[in-house]
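Data availability (excerpt). All sequences and predicted C-alpha cell strings are deposited with the supplementary files. A representative entry, Pyrroline-5-carboxylate reductase, is shown inline so that the format can be inspected without opening the archive.
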Amino acid sequence: MKIGIIGTGNMGKILIEAFIEAGAVPPENMTITNRTLKKAYSIQSLYENIVVKETAEEVAKDADIIFLSVKPLDIHPLLMRIDHLLTKDKCVISITSPVSVKQLQSLVSCQVARIIPSITNRALSGVTLMTFGENLSAEYRDYLTEICGKISKPITISENVTRVASDIVSCGPAFFSYLLQRFIDGAVSETEITKEQATALASEMIVGMGKLLEKDLFTLPTLQEKVCVKGGVTGEGIKVLENELGDVFHHLIQKTHEKFDEDLCEVKKQFH
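C-alpha cell line:
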C-alpha cells in the first residue's frame, strides 16, 4: 500500500523515519509533503526514494493511507480541501488526540482511524494508540496494526481514555525526562559529581530499568521492594518523595485535561 504523510514536523518525521528504518514501509511507497517544502526535501535527502509532492492534494490523490500530521485546528480546513479526492477505498488517519474518529467520519466519505504515536517510536519501541472508525475495513485494520507493530506495541483504546492514554504514552517521555533532569541537577548541586557523569549514570540507569520491566523481571512495586531495603538509604529517599511529591501527578493530569477540554471546544466549533 502507498502511504502519504501530510506534515513533516516532529511527529511526522518520526513516523517516516521509524516506518522506513523498521522495514514497515519501503521509501518508494511513501509520499510526503509539508507547508514548508524544505523540510520534506530534507527528509528526501536521507531516503532518496521517498516521493515529495508540493501540495496536500497531490499526496491525497497518490496515497491509499493518508496520515494527517498537522495541528488539531488545521485538520478540518485540510480535510475540506482534499475531501473530493478521498474515495471510499482510501483511509485518512489523524495523529492528534482532540479530533475523534467520529468527527473524521462526519466530514469525509473515506475510511478513518486515529493513531497517536510517541517519540519512543523513533527507537522502534513504546506504544502507538489506535482507535478505528466504524467504516474501517479489516484489511486496513490488519495492515495498520502490522506496520505500527514494527515500530511499537499497538494498543487499541476507546474514546473516553484518549487524553490520559496520550498523557502516559506521548507526553510521558517529556514528563519523566524533566524529573530525571531534576534528579541529575540535585545530585550535581549537593555533591562533587560532574553533570556529565551524573547524566551518563542516570541515562544508563533508566535504560536498564526499562529493560527490567520489558523482560517482566519485576513490576514497578516489586522493583521498589527489591531496591528499598528496610531502614536503608533508598527508604529515606522514598520518604522524601512521598512527602514532597504529594498530589503532583493528580494535578498534572488535571491540567492536561483542562487544556484538552479547551482544544475539544475549538475543534467542535469547526466540525459543527
